Amino acid sequence: MRRYVAALLATATTAITAGSVLAQPPSIIEDFKPSALNQPGQQYPQVNSQGYVRFRIAAPDAKAVHMSLGLGGQGGTAMTKGDDGAWTGTTAGALDQGFHYYHLTVDGGTFNDPGTLNFYGSTRWESGIEIPAQDADFYAVKDVPHGQVQQILFASPSTATTRRAYVYTPPGYEKNVSARYPVLYLQHGWGEDETAWANQGHANLIMDNLIASGSTRPFIIVMTYGMTNDVKPGAPGGLASFDIKPFQTVLLNELIPYVDGHFRTRADARHRAMAGLSMGGFETKLIASANPDKFAYIGLFSGGTYSLDDVNKIPGFKEKAKLVFVSFGSRELDNPRRGAPPGMPPSDPRANAAALKDAGFNSVFYVSPNTAHEFLSWRRSLREFAPLLFRD
Amino acid sequence: MRRYVAALLATATTAITAGSVLAQPPSIIEDFKPSALNQPGQQYPQVNSQGYVRFRIAAPDAKAVHMSLGLGGQGGTAMTKGDDGAWTGTTAGALDQGFHYYHLTVDGGTFNDPGTLNFYGSTRWESGIEIPAQDADFYAVKDVPHGQVQQILFASPSTATTRRAYVYTPPGYEKNVSARYPVLYLQHGWGEDETAWANQGHANLIMDNLIASGSTRPFIIVMTYGMTNDVKPGAPGGLASFDIKPFQTVLLNELIPYVDGHFRTRADARHRAMAGLSMGGFETKLIASANPDKFAYIGLFSGGTYSLDDVNKIPGFKEKAKLVFVSFGSRELDNPRRGAPPGMPPSDPRANAAALKDAGFNSVFYVSPNTAHEFLSWRRSLREFAPLLFRD
Questions:
Q1: Residue B106 and residue A59: Cβ atoms within 8 Å?
Q2: Are strands A272-277 and A235-236 parallel, antiparallel or unpaired?
Q3: Could you tell me if B124 lies within 8 Å of chain A, comparing CB atoms?
Q4: Distance from CA of A169 to the nearest CA of B (A)
Q5: What is the reported pTM?
Q6: ipTM of the complex, rounded to two decimals
């Protein structure tokens, strides 16, 4: 019943960035539980069955404590100090289901909530919270065979660095020593890094569960850092002036050869996909469009679209592209100027996808219900995208 | 020259917990640089060539900011607010080389330094800082073949959970598909978790470098969570009342079979080692002593010793144990009551090691110079231990 109430609320609300405002604030149901992303033993933050979040921060001598997370446009969540010296506050309404980043301000300083785990976003490790989704089962830890997520370090002469990537190998990879596997290169968004798809995205669990149910063919996923446009160390430039070349060189000339040399891959375009969320979709489009001989399967998750004009400019694209997958959170389409990433063309992504389909492309358009530019949109996008890969 | 000065200071100092006090405070050399563990683009905290740390925290409206890290016995580092609203402070002396945990207090609340990465210790994610060590080369990222660190999820019926471990596979593991490898089970300390040996310990880099120089045989390392004595969820009990059985069941009945089933191991005692730091050494001694048929190589890093009495109680231990390795930081031996873990027997570990050697054991005792109960002791211990493994 509680799940039903939560689902109903989520459907009835109007999107404002990360949250939603109710026309009539309902009474708050006092069934708050510690967030699934809390540090071991921590009781706060808590989430209730409606999707409200309650924070609690011990800072007895502070003059002002404020949470960045709240309903968009309302400036986060105000906190008030109790007699016990702890500051508490509850969001003014239900947040979207799924994962949200946040931080707090204590007397003018920016800190993380000591109650929660941190996740790399906004070019820093931020506090994270999870609002249980009604469809959370697809990324739950279940008693199914689990693949492995491994860190690799690869030499990058072009950037004069040793770079890190994470590689998901599916269940059975270790034992089936004669089998070779297709590979998906999967990119994070602006301000995130190569940890995002496993930590925030649960890409490994999504794959484990899809493979266990027979919904997708087993494949390898490679996730690396895509922000190569630093204007100074650690200060990435914007997308407007984004130059794809440094990252393209790392990906095509360094990472892919390393992966093909160290893992049992099928090292041709028909067994190689690229996808990304937000900026990662932007990168995917730039690299896949310029290299139709490298990737036959393409996914843009809240990261732009392909118009007919776009694809007509790419020689041989129609013959080579086995899949052009485009997805958004529903709230991004409701209000594209809020949800769309910088650089997204102003054309209607749904109409673009339909035009590609009419032109004979394997064009798939997916909309994540009741989510915005946020990770539940992208977890669901991966769930929809993976079964469509490597079917030829 | 700077390296020489730093080394000289470290040798001349007297240990107090995590740091050292100089008889005559030298003048501070103003060559502070951002710590290697800072978040991308963050300028503070900084470390100078002497091993002093300087902190800077923006919190313009705070009444009091204090750092937990400083010279032991002096209550951390005081911070003072400048005209720009930022609080700064410098440790009262040089810290030990290597890794240190810390946090800060802002108006009575406990937070992490937003400038640094976090590391799991003290049962929470804490701020970390690295004082460059003069021998840091052995755990540096170099242009050598790199092994992989992978996350595995294994079913644990005994605890009714899906548990996580990290597995280091050495360079070449992927390609040499007919080779089988010995395995070291390597445990973290109290309050830490399965992330510690790779994150704080650089176990993977230590191994990559040892293997590249031909100093050790390639082997697999498995690191899992050893704190199974929670008195309530997330609140681990003390060591005095520690019951090894739940962890022993996870390790022997669940993890080892999983690893032997999913990796190309040599699944016998002669090709299996166990070691751990602090509480992990305590666990190693309990489990290895009770199961001499399971592990032929044993390492206790700042985590107890084996006396002749101990080993005489274990049937067949002398024939089966190929190596009994015990190590400490030199400052733990200078002042054992400070540095020794709870549960460490009061007997002299150096004399114990010598007695075992006289009794015909392959007993090795190692002392890490100028370090205490801290990670540089344990990185060095692994460097010394690894080459001694699996030689028969």
A1: yes
A2: unpaired
A3: yes
A4: 10
A5: 0.88
A6: 0.84
